[in-house]
Sequence to fold (129 residues):
Amino acid sequence: AKAKAAIKAFEDGYSFVYLHVEAADECGHHNQLKEKISCIEDIDSKVIAPVMEYIENCGDDYSVLIMPDHPTPMVIRTHSADPVPFAMYRSKDIPANNDVIYTENNAKNSGVFFDKAHELMGELLKQEG
Fold:
């Protein structure tokens, strides 16, 4: 339903859509590994994939930011102050690369870090050229 609502918002002329999906975070709080993995797989296939397919087929330049709102490591079952991993893609800047996988380790090893969250949003919305 969230993917359909996002796509409808784009069809209705909105240029910015924010989706928040809580399920994987809740599984972290309850130390439910299998369920957390399933939630993340469902988010990938049922939310991100259809929205990405829609915006890719529109033919316009676009930017996408995918991230949790905070880490919830299962070993502590609560939120942590660890840096938040993210994946950002701007169609006009970077050709799609299906070889890069979004994981905490890949995000950490990328060397890209924003100390202040508002700087991340600024980077997402930055328009050059």
